[in-house]
## 1
Amino acid sequence: MALPRITSPHATGSNRTRRIMQQVLVATLPGLLTLTWLYGFAPLINLLLASATALGLEAAVLHLRQRPVGFFLNDCSALVTAMLLALALPPQSPWWLTLTACGFAILFGKHVYGGLGQNPFNPAMVGYVVALVSFPVEMTAWPVPHVVGLTEGIQHIFGIASLPDGWSQATALDALKTNRSLTMDELRVQNPAFGHLGSRGAEWVNLAFLAGGLFMLRRRLFGWHAPAGMLGALFVMSLLFWNGSDSDSNGSPLFHLLSGATMLGAFFIVTDPVSGATSNQGRLIFGIGVGILVYVIRTWGGYPDGVAFAVLLMNLAAPTIDYFSRPRTYGHRKAERSFKVGG
Amino acid sequence: MSEAKLWEFQGGIHPPERKELSNRTPIQRVPLPARLILPLGQHIGTPAEPIVTVGERVLKGQPIATASGRVSAPLHAPTSGTVSFIGMQPYPHVSGLLAPAIVIDSDGLDEWTALEPCADHRSLEPAILLERIRQAGISGLGGAGFPTAVKLTARPQRKIHTLIVNGAECEPYITADDRLMRERAAELIIGIDILVQLIEPEQVLIGIEDNKPEAVAAVRAALGERSFGLRVLPTKYPSGGERQLIEILTGRQVPSGGLPADIGMLCQNVGTCVAIHDTVLLGRPLISRIVTLTGEALARPMNVEALLGTPVGELLAFAGLDEARMDRLIMGGPMMGFTLSSLDVPLIKTANCLLAPTRSELPPPPPALPCIRCGACADVCPASLLPQQLHFFALGREHEQLRAYNLFDCIECGACAYVCPSSLPLVQYYRVAKAEIRELEQKRHKAGHSRLRFELRQERLRKSEEQKEAERRARVEKAARARAVQAESSSVPHQETSLASRPTGLSEHQKKLKIEASMTQVALKKAEKQLAVHPTAELEAQVAELRAAAEAARKALEATTPAAPSAGNDTALKKAKIELAMRRTELKKAEKASVDDSELAHLREALADAKRALHAAEEASDRPAPQLVRIDKRPVDEKLRALKTELAFARADLRKLERDETIDPPVLESARTRLAEAERRLAGYQSE
């Protein structure tokens, strides 16, 4: 009888890409729920729009690239990109903004490089940055927490009717950046964008993302290195450059940790394995780089928040980090710190 | 003792152990098979060489093949019977290819050869112990199969301070060592005693995973007063890998590309230790081993002690194999085992497990997705490699990068592929890449060798060309000098230059006569040649005339020669010899040209004349007469001839092997050593 010839190992674990993606989606739920609690249906409508766009485009591109559509759609990676974008975009974003960001993420962030696993940049961040530089007004204004009903949300997002004036406004990070006259305490009292700890609303969202991130850490979806690196570096930077609560304040460490996209970035973006560094040491360096850049952009750069830019910049640096952060192989006296040019 | 410090190795996984399938029943004996297939290569190294012939009756335990080369192990008959075949037979290898083997038809008597038991191993010298282990054909029973005696002496200059006994058995499903330790702990400990006697280590560490509490208890009970360190390791695959176990027990790492002996350690599997006990105390060679038969396609998974050479099909049948349910047949465990393509392959020394899983038990992995660089593989890699980087480089065939990322430190444990969320067959990529690199290296080596040979040849050609050129120039110079001499004595004809330049001491008259004689001789030869082509009467007459003239000239010359004693007897002798040779050539030529009889008779007479003249000259000279018996230049030397023949054979063999690209290096190496040996011996003999 002819028995099949298969090479070892014959046992395989239960770890699957699809499972990982699904767990990431689950881990975003606290954040999504918090956003819904704060802003009503708008974030959910955004999510639907983003998901439909991402899946539709992914399927179309796979078809064009003559890849098995169902097989690759099944890995849920497009859904994760859509989810991250929907969480990162302001809840009141008009439909075309979501569409543009999502389209760029899937087409130019992912598939032009060859699809899953091949992209050098985080697709969601590519989409986000394209939207940010193209439509700065829509992208830098976040609404004060205000529960929006279903019809109200749909009408606003599709431009049928706009929400009352003053609903959207500059974020706390933006206000802090442009503030020249008020102390932190005054800002906190006078500006509705400020909350107890960080930005109003965003502080809760950040805490929710932190919870989701800890869930993923527990499930060992990624190591602690990249998030710890980013949060640690951001904390150290904001501590080093914390000049009190005067009118020229750079913001306290806690403010930075709980404002803007800090936690979303730390647990859902920086941990992206594809566009990040490879080794644990590399990931730590990668996270630290992101943390430093976030602070630099927030404090001295032209944009109120810098997570997306910081991540893209570090994505560029990831291959270099990889070359210089290889672990010491068993039985070798020290790690290889350089790379040999392929002959 | 188990609370002693343990280290942790990086990485590792916890696959389902499934050991309970087969570890519940005692080791059983399999019925004697009717036919045993004993492959000659059951160990790492050169295959053994058969020392029996087809039809020969062998007894159980009798050597049937001997070790060839340094890294090799002999082979013994596992039962009594008749050698029925020596040649290609099924072999347990992933390729499914045949391999040379000795087949024994069992006679059912299971009759032992005379054994040499030894009541007390302490009475034996280490050298004798080592020789016993060597002659018993023991090779590592853990799976790698390195000849034990060779391993024990791998680094003779290094002192082994730590002996490590590997009872970790980390691979899922396998319980052979577990049952062995439970049932033969006493023998195991004596086997270790023997090793201690041999290598005198400072400490002995026995490592057993904590999923085998019964084995730990049995070994602890058998230890008695001995100071061996029994270490219970946390279960983690691959803690039983030699290098990993050394790190767990001692915190030290074996240098890349080196041996444990390089850091003063030696690792032996528990099965090997028991085999050493059996050999030294009972005198039994390695003819059987304990093998786990497991998997859900078996009705009665168990451990058996089976004779080497038993077809695996018979073993599985004994355990109640349901062939319809078996999805594949694996030799070894589910992590590092390889699939067998037939049930006819025999059990060999390295086979610790036969796994017959059903499809649902070890389902084939889902289709592979692209790598998402999640790094799970790097987290579990016990060698601290970056498997996903290696995978990308392997895909791109970037061999330099693969080397830079230490591909060759991969132990192919399969942990990376086990955890890969994209179900990439990572180990397969590495195996292919390793094979590719090795092949390229071999080719490069060969190309380098060829280039060297080519360059040496060019050099030789250039030298010989130069030499020829130098000789030519020397000749031209000589000719020029001669011409200058000729110009001085202008009347001397060209043919005589060499003679004239030689200080022959001939008088002018003699010279003239000589010239005359040779000229007539030349004219005669010319005429004869013409005659041979156009035999006309006119020419014939001319030839006869010329011959007469030549004879006259010669006689005239001869008449003067004795009058010139200065020429000496030797010269006369030489001349006579030349004369004789010339006559002989003439005669032969004439015979060839089928000249008529009278002519031939004439020539023969001339030849006889010349002979006579030679004899006369010989008598005149003081030299002894030449021996007329024809002898070889040198007496024939049988030994020398044999040596030369061996050298030629060795050379031819090596050439043949070098032309063959598929040959493996050890074979080539042994051919080279043979050639070198032959050359050395010949040189040695000649210089005597």
Note: The longest strand of chain B covers residues 81-90.
## 2
Amino acid sequence: MAVQDGMFRAVAVLRVLLLANAVALNVYRRDNFVHPTAGLVLVLVMVAWTFVANWAYADRRRRRPPLLVADLLVAVALIAATPWVKGAGFNATLPGYWVMGALLAWAIHWRLVGGTVAACALVAADLLSRQEMNQTNYGNVFLLLLGGVVVGYLVDLLQRMAVARDVAEREAAVAGERARLARAVHDGVLQVLALVQRRGGEPGGDAELGRLAGEQEQALRALIRQQDALQVPTDEDGEVDLGPVLEALGLLRSPRVSVATPGTPVPLPAQSAGEVEAVVRACLHNVEVHVGDDAPAWVLLEDLGDRVVVSVRDEGPGIADGRLAAAEAEGRLGVSGSIRGRVADLGGTAELITGAFGTEWELTFPRDPER
Amino acid sequence: MSDGDAQQPVRVMVVDDHPMWRDAVERDLAAAGFDVVAVAANGTEALARFPAARPGVVVLDLQIPAPNGVEVTAEVVRLDPSARVLILSASGEQDDVLDAVKAGATGYLVKSASSAELLDAVRRVSRGDTVFTPGLAGLVLGEFRRMLDAPPSDDGSSRLTERETEVLRLVAKGLSYKQIAERLVLSHRTVQNHVQNTLRKLQLHNRVQLTRYAIEQGLDDEDE
């Protein structure tokens, strides 16, 4: 409807311009009139109808079939009266291009069908009132027909696009509102789960219940992160944000992983991000095997512009001197070798710090310089 | 003032819109010998009660009815620069935690922390120490790196020294201050100072940005 309102406003302006043009031409060619008085009356009718029509079309409620039919009839009648006031051999019809107003009104209101019907009516009136056809007449008639069809089609298209846009806007608003409500609910649930977990840890508390609440809290937290990540899917360059990808590792039941990220997107080509995640998983798996199921581990993601650094740390017994070399001597690749290999495949480096304080991998991945 | 008298119990205010949480935290604090001088369920109550209660530490939930935790933090620190704000958040490390730290909070803890951890955090914050989680350290590191990309402010507030970066990275990797001190062969106090400095720079930078913004927007009267 907004589309129609806008178009009728444009047509109203157009009608006035067309009227000025038609009046000027008739005044200029006033010598051609066989019945000047009748001609003057008809021009005044045209002037009057222009303003009546503009007033009538301005309100949506008045845009009913009778108005549109009357509009077209006036245009057709003015064409049909031309041979009588200007003589049978007239050149230009009395209203001239002014009839476009009625044509466009039909095209806007009844779209493709309306535009076509109005164009046909005007063309028929024009052709029937003439004694002979010349090329200019034919061109005008053809353009009139074409204009009716094209404008009708365009209005149809615009209308459908406006409807689609309205639906999309409504859906976005609904999704936004849902997300807002979900945030409030999630926060409340997290609070309660944390509280239950806390009570469970107190003397006399239900430790089992506390543990279960803790697990659910972690699961919900991970779900929220995933949802946030889904809202920023792969962009047009096929890049993903590595942050949420690694944060999802915090969901692992074992080891207990704490993930620190810079808080802003760390874009990386989707495939590289997948590889990085796989390497980090391998490091964490190593923690689980060598340190314990319940061992804590930490992952830190840093974006240094030209490179991305991921650190994975545990507080296990460390990797004993010579164990890596021994594994290699035995022909086993070993987890460490496989981690190094995978990082190297991405053009990066893996640094291993190990000792009684634990084990720390610092994985550096260069960014594509063309980025 | 912030160190207080060892005999004098630390005055604490608890702000949380969940009554069960508020009661649990209040009970734990009271049982551990803290003086809970006020509680509040939303930002308006918190700011109304703060001047009279004069707490040394405000234990603040970020998600409270308006004004939110970040605004309350800024106002509390403005009213009494010696007051410490410990953020307690259910939803994990997010931008609003960073905003609260920029506004002047010196401690942050997730709600799933044990009550022993909470008491320890309140004690440390009241002494003027900073309480960081690895996740928050990661956010702060990221923030300083973003500042490097932004136009330089030349006041030194937007840059960390190499040592500060090193310490903050270790915090983000989950090391305790004690472990960091051992690893870098520093005193525990020095590590603590480095962490405090990073926070101070962040808060200073934030104030500088706000002032600059105010001047740009023509909100600063003295500038006219």
Note: Confidence is low (pLDDT under 50) at residues 1-5 of chain B.
## 3
Amino acid sequence: MDKREYQWAWLMVLPVLVLVAFSAVIPLMTVVNYSLQDILGRSAFFVGAEWFEETLNNSRLQAALMRQFAFSFTILAIQIPLGIGIALLMPKRGWQASAVLILITMPLLVPWNVVGSMWQIFTRGDIGLAGFIIRELGYDYNITANAVDAWVTIIIMDIWHWTPLVALLCYSGLRSIPEAYFQAARIDRASKWATFRYIQLPKLTNVLVIAVLLRFMHSFMIYAEPFVLTGGGPGSSTTFLSQSLATMAIAQQDLGPSAAFSITYFLIILAVSYVFYVTIMNMQKEKAAQQGAGGAE
Amino acid sequence: MSAGASRESSGLRRSLLALYLFFTLLPIYWLLNMSLKTNQEILGTFSLWPEALNLHAYLRILTDPSWYMGYVNSLTYVFMNMTISILVALPAAYAFSRFRFIGDKHLFFWLLTNLMAPPAVFLLPYFQLYYSVGLFDTHIAVALAHCLFNIPLAVWILEGFMSSVPKEVDETAYIDGYSFPAFFVKIFIPMIRSGIGVTLFFLFMFSWVELLLARILTATEAQPIGAIMTRTSTASGVDWATLSAAGILTIVPGLLVVYFVRNHIAKGFALGRT
Amino acid sequence: MEWMVWTLPTALFFGVIATGLLGMTIWEVVSPTIERKGFLPISTTRGDRFFIGLLTSAYIHLVVVGFTDISLWLALGVSIVWMAILMRWG
């Protein structure tokens, strides 16, 4: 790379390091400490790896993990293509561009538990628009009793909530492409698909990295929206990992087991995200190497 | 491609976009509709719009301190967090985008891992930590807690913006005799103005919408609006109108922020060298 | 600090990690790493291999604790050997 080596750059990073370490390292250490002990009020007993053994063999948590993966990959598979599509459809300039931008961003600015309340109101059979209409059409729609209804509703809610983020990032990425590229493509009589594949998509790589990683991480930690909308039910059909954890940590006050669960949870996210990150960085490196070999200055 | 076909496809594009916008706005409209009705009307009849505009719920929220202070509290810690995050993230992002130093890549990934830490993991230690340093139930506690994910995000986005500024800009400035701080403030920051605008938008957004941490770190003095809203559901039923009005009001500050940064977003950013 | 409920094993654990990081930094200052391709599918620096080693070791421990009755000391031993292999040939 063309970066200069400069060890004093550490000083510029130091404030970030201190602040984030205060918020991240101290609590993380505490969680590790909790995870090996049985804590009752003021006294703590060392129990070794017992909580980990319990957590890993807890079938409820295993089921929540499977649901979590199913949920995260479903919404990624829908939101990323949909977001790119919306970004391609958005007007490029003028007041329409501003108006569409502002309207599309709205769901992102709603606090997460309000998103839950909003969709709860929207889908209720008695006072909700969606719930009422679907029932009028003759389908017995009920998210508190039917697991499939609850699942579909949560996925639609998440699409409503988060597709704007993908669309916003992609829109900005698309807007950064100089007009000259499109003129060249028009002169070459490139098809729409070819223009997308060879001009627009490559420019979107960096913003898509952010979009995919952010969407994966946030969907993997989803808590407030399903908690308010379905409470994790019916049964435990929409109980995701964060909610299981919050139940253990807050409602049941099981510090040790919930700490062990936290660490396992974090390790899973860490591994998946690292694989994502490395794969994407490697793809970019290879691309850069190809370009470097092709167009040596 | 003929002009007719182009007009046809542009018509199709418009309708598809309109369809998506309709989907986006429908739940929000419904919330607005609820907020303008009385509770009797909400539970009594099903109608697509309110019979008469009823601003009772809004008046109640905007005149009762125990309600509107929730918005003030939320905005206070959000702006504190934005200030802290952007100030420390700017130099750090510059360092990551311009220099190589020992551990730079690992440090960057470590920062990203903090975006991945589920807040639920940290709830109890956070409570204990802020309680023991005497910051419990203050705005700064929430602002600092939100730094956990907002600083890494700011560094990540700003690094992308800075990397798209050619290095020659820096070098020319040094040749012209600028010191580093003068260059950074007078030349570099104006060049990435859009980037700062976009970053501030994301910082606002993620701090404004997060509630799990904000709720556990506050009791009465710094309670966010999201926590106050739970008051609407009581043993005698849910006060749908007030809940809806409070919900609608949570969107307003964000809309103002988007309005200010809309041109920066529309200007486009590719984040880094593509 | 009392609320952090430190115990000897966790203190040792963090001590080892901190020493490891410090050691890696000193090693890096003394002789800077060269990115190379080993048996791992990507080319890595020394620090990358160290991180991958720690993460996989954590998983080795989890598997042993959760799904077998093998002693944790054995998992620790396997992890150390694995770490050495990774640092040398990874």
Note: DSSP finds 13 helices and three strands in chain B.
## 4
Amino acid sequence: MKQVKDFIIIDNCKIGEAYCKMRLAPADGSILPEMLPGQFVEVAVETPGVLLRRPISINDVDRQANILTLLVRNAGRGTSALIDMKAGERLNLLLPLGNGFSTEAPAGARLILIGGGVGVAPLLYLGKVLKEKGFEPEFLLGARTVADLLSLDDFKAVGKVHVCTEDGSEGVKGFVTAHPCLSEKATRYYCCGPAPMMKAVAKVARQNGVDCEVSLENMMACGLGACLCCVEKTVKGNVCVCTEGPVFNINELTWE
Amino acid sequence: MANLSVNIGGLELQNPVMTASGTFGYGEEFTPFIDINRLGAYIIKGTTLNPRQGNDYPRMVETPAGMLNAVGLQNKGVDYFIEHIYPRIKDYKSHLIVNVSGANVDDYAETARRLHPLDGVKAIEVNISCPNVKEGGMAFGTTTSGAAAVTKAVREAYPGKTLIVKLSPNVTSIADIARAVEAEGADSVSLINTLMGMSIDVEKRRPHLSTVTGGLSGPAVRPVAVRMVWQVAKAVKIPVVGLGGIMNGRDAIEFMLAGARAIEIGTANFVDPAVTMKVIDYMEDYCQRHGISDINEIVGCI
């Protein structure tokens, strides 16, 4: 059930200049609501000049510790204020929103989780859930340079990690689509990152006959399917990314 | 406890708080957060005769203390509404009001005619002020003759039930437009729809919206809206519904002091989906603090 809830920041670690990893617990001590990998939250940012909530994907859910983790990139005034927040401060969240990735697959399926930049965020929780279900998820993570590779150790704890950097400072040099692991057999790609990257991965998926789900981050206001601002063209017409997505199978989209 | 009920052109509302069309979906999106039965009325998404896909993405950008949108009346058309959506949402205790838009006068009238027999639709709000569609919409709302023509046609197609006309602020004299629709039989006017605006991404050197221009809403427009409500309330005898950047109870009272009999909450629903309930609570508290027994006492006291 969607809800509006106050959270307390347990800690907020800066990663370089442009990112932070924020761990949150419900302020009233209640148990975290059910959240699926690929779902997101809308964060109210109490800072001058910011009106709308900011959609942030769920990076991790620790049921035992009752902690929700968000990975935030500085993309403007709202997210920059989030990066500056300190442990002990309160945040108001609207959650959980959106549909989430599908986590059903045939036994022994090869599942590759492909992330670019801060798009790696939802793949950690997805990888953990897939692992719990008995799969061996692999990650293919891309970034501009080694400094933009976020939380690599967290991913390594869940599964095998392949790395690409545009400048070659770590792993294979180039875009994720250049990585040899994409020329091997696979059952499904899950992809989250900049639109050009997701479109390139979708193309590879079609060529290889691999099932592919992408997580879109269209600009949105309400997060509830009311404002109709975040629409994406699909085979069913314009649909709200916040309610029908953010995860779409590429067959639903009208990408070339 | 003070009386909060108000009358909008023959329609008795249990309190003055309504939701602005296009910001509240069909109401269902908000049931996890609020009790729709407590609202004065809920005005749902703009409905047209034929289905509309709306404008291309991007449709929205945040601006200082507001947002620009260019949704373009995406909806599945009046027949789909009547068959599939209406049955799900008609039985709330608060009044269902449908916002109606059209590309030409006949479309407005035909949509109103199809909604007229529905007992659960207590009123329609005619949108002659949408800045985001190429034909119709605001084109009718920016001249007295256009506004009068739509109102006349809809009045004939929608007799005996409450007809609210939603006005555009993108005009030289909103009071003249209000008088024109009053003369053609509108039971009430609501104002303001969004202010036409524009925003440019200077790095990419292109507009933020696919349509270049869009409609500005949120607290940025509030002083303009309050001024227009004040002017219109002095110009017409029919009740005025005020909207434009109402974020909380204080803002709602401001509109009522300026002359609004009821108010609509729009963009604030995106920030706090439970805001409408808080505004109703605030009104009760405000009346108590000020020794007001009936909220109608404060309407237009400026």
Note: Residues 275-289 of chain B form the longest helix (15 residues).
